[in-house]
Amino acid sequence: MEIEKLITAYYRAHNVRYPHEIQLDLFAERLGITVLRLPRPALCGSKRIVIDCRQPPEMQREQLAHELGHRILHSGRQPDMDPLFRGLQEEQTRLFAMYALVPTFMLAPLVSDTPQYYEHQCAYLASIFCVAYKFMRQRLNLFESTHLVRCR
User: Fold this and answer.
1) 83-100 per-position pLDDT tens digit
2) Residue 100 burial by CB count (10 A; 0-12/13-18/19+): exposed, middle or buried?
3) What is the sign of the dihedral through the CA atoms of 49, 59, 20 and 106?
4) Neighbours of 10 (CB within 10 A)
5) Could you read off the pLDDT of 138-149 as tens digits, one per residue?
6) Secondary structure (3-state) at 51
7) DSSP secondary-structure letter at 49?
């Protein structure tokens, strides 16, 4: 199943309709995954995910979404994989994080195609979805590329 459709189906099944309702800790809990916030680099195991509590809240959300992507989409140990395959997995988890934190069905109604407001729009959307500005820029670029909309 396509990553975006998988996440959209999950959110619709659990009545998640607005950005403030996106609770990745609950998502993980429903999958039987424990989320720990510790002062160490992020790590994903079979039944737990460690998030670096020294990072800002937006970065912790991005780390959790990324590690959840690994847990949901992949199996095996990355260090043992061919670098090209590992790169593919990283791209898949990057997309998972983007769709999980800023789902298209929530983003689309909020996007303006007025280029002069791009920077303000990006900052505003980052605050609504509780993600870093840089993450939102990347998400808007993905949205533009897949929906034939120019945001800037």
Assistant:
1) 665 667 788 899 999 999
2) buried
3) negative
4) 16
5) 999 999 888 765
6) strand
7) E
